[in-house]
Amino acid sequence: VQLVESGGGLVQPGGSLRLSCAASGFPFDHLVITWYRQRPGKERELVAGISSGGGTTSYGEVAKGRFTISRDNGKNMAYLQMNSLKPEDTGVYLCKAESAEAGVYWGQGTQVTVSP
Questions:
Q1: Cβ of 75: how many Cβ atoms within 10 Å?
Q2: How much of the chain, in percent, has pLDDT values that exceed 70?
Q3: How far apart are CA 115 and CA 58, in angstroms?
Q4: 89 — phi, psi (to 5°)?
Q5: pLDDT at residue 64 greater than cutoff 90
C-alpha cells in the first residue's frame, strides 16, 4: 500500500485547509484510514478516523467541531477538512491505512503551518 498526502501549507489562524490522502496498491474500500499529526516536541496524536466503507467516523479531541474526515472510494482518496485552524495545529499530518489483510501503512506526511 502506498499513501501520498497533500494539501498542507501555510495558513493564517482561523483559516482552512483540505488535506488529501491518495492510496494505491490495495483495494481502497478494504482499508480503514486514520489521520494523525506530529507536532514539534510532542507525541504523535490521533486526529480522525474513518471506516473502510465511510459509514463510521471518529475524532480525537483536537479535531472535534473543527475537522471533518471523509473518503471517496471511487477515487481511492481520503480527506481531512480542517477549519478554524489555530497555531497549535501546526505540524506534520500523516495518513495511516490498515486492514487485517494488508497490515498497517503510513504516508510521509504533509506539513501544516498556521501562522499570521
A1: 12
A2: 100
A3: 27
A4: -85, -5
A5: no
